[in-house]
Write a structure and sequence with these properties.
Layout: H1 2-8, H2 15-31, H3 35-48, H4 55-68, H5 72-83, H6 90-106, H7 116-126, H8 131-146, H9 150-163, H10 170-178
Helix pairs in contact: 2-3, 2-4, 3-4, 4-5, 4-6, 5-6, 6-7, 6-8, 7-8, 8-9, 9-10
Length: 179
């Protein structure tokens, strides 16, 4: 870990390389039941000012870990912070929207203009070329089906397969639509 910290200060180490290393370390910590340590490390990186161009990604990782730990309100708050940042990559913004919508679902907030379904729709409208947009169809369809709105769930599954016929999620969507 110390080597990783020291490498982050070297000018020859790119943000992408730092992100990959931090991601792998966070994965190992999470997989070994040490999510708290991963969150603490992310917090230190964010507080140190070294995060720079990695701020959005690190916050996204924090939001994912909080969601995994069932801290849906905390995760949703972090996602809102991410979405307030300037110059986010489409993937980070879309990923934050997907995590936010998932948290809103878990909190039982699916409807209305600030609910999960509205966030999914905005995600698909603003970032249609991202994987998160494709996943949003599946997530919303499953939530609609769980609420007994099978026709809407089916419509979303079919829409996914029509809009993204080569999507790795198309088969799953067709299977769900057929049920």
């Amino acid at each position: 870990v110390r080597t990783l910290d020291e490498s982050a200060d070297l000018p020859s180490v790119s943000d992408g390389e730092i992100w990959n290393a931090e991601w792998l370390l966070a994965q190992r910590l999470r997989n070994s039941g040490r999510s708290g340590e991963a969150l603490a490390r992310i917090g230190r990186l964010l507080d140190s000012g070294r995060a720079g161009g990695l701020r959005g990604r690190l916050l996204w990782l924090k939001a994912v870990i909080l969601r995994e730990n069932a801290d849906y309100e905390g995760s949703e708050k972090v996602c809102s912070e991410i979405l307030s940042l300037k110059n986010l990559s489409p993937e980070v913004a879309a990923g934050a929207m997907l995590v936010r919508a998932s948290c809103l679902e878990s909190l039982g907030k699916t409807g209305g203009e600030n609910g999960a379904f509205a966030v999914y729709e905005r995600l698909r409208r603003e970032y249609p070329s991202t994987g998160a947009a494709q996943i949003s169809y599946i997530n919303q369809a499953r939530a609609e089906a769980a609420a007994g709105r099978y026709a809407e769930a089916r419509r979303l599954c079919v829409a996914l397969t029509e809009k993204y016929p080569e999507s790795p999620f198309a088969y799953s969507a067709l299977f769900d639509a057929a049920r």
